[in-house]
What does this fold into?
Amino acid sequence: MKFRPCIDLHGGKVKQIVGSSLMDAKAGALITNFETNLSPEHFAEMYKTDGLAGGHVIMLGPGNEQAALRALAAFPGGLHAGGGITPDNAREYLDAGASHVIVTSFVFKNGIIDYENLEAMAKAAGKGRLILDLSCKYVGNGYYIATDRWQKLTTVRLSSTTLEELARHCDEFLVHAVDIEGKQGGIDGKLIELLSASSPICLTYAGGVRSIADLDEVDIKGKGRVDATVGSALDIFGGPLPYRKVVEWHKNHQ
It folds into this structure.
């Protein structure tokens, strides 16, 4: 299991935001846990120094493109880029230094998997450099993929069949537990167990990690097959969990 770092961008700045508050239509609804004037490349260089490859740079809305490109240039081959990625711009981010590009909304249209868009995305990026973001909410009888800043639920339920089918088109999965992401309230153990049992490829879980004990729990419930991202809980983003302890934990698990 690995710790995967993150750089979340909003308005051109590094921030930590409660993802479920990213509502287009409701002004003032945004909940920001942390904001800094430190540059995106500052964090990218730190991750590079600490040998933390495989993290992600996420553009939360427009106006973050240049900030993302600077971060990618600071850690060539070490970060994934996501947020508004399409076949038209995927190559720009890959050429700028992204090891992979991450896509959700472009592939899941009108509540279903748009296989034409999925094939176009895989062709533009290459299967080996494409990550599908399968961030999800629990509704009724299962976990369903959410798109468009997590405001729209699809009819696509996470299952072994779904994950095996989607894995044919990409290299990795990224899965945020939307209902708890950014709230530092503990992990979704049932989701992690589902992902570990069902995914045939590498994946990263995000949502609720607040302590070393939570990382240990991800490792146990994920049987070492599920990597984890930590955001708002880290002290570098204003939280109580020392980043250096997480780096040490990561190195001890390799």
Q: What stands out?
A: Helices lie at 40-49, 65-74, 90-95, 115-125, 160-167, 189-198, 212-221, 243-252. DSSP finds eight helices and 16 strands in the chain. The mean pLDDT is 93.
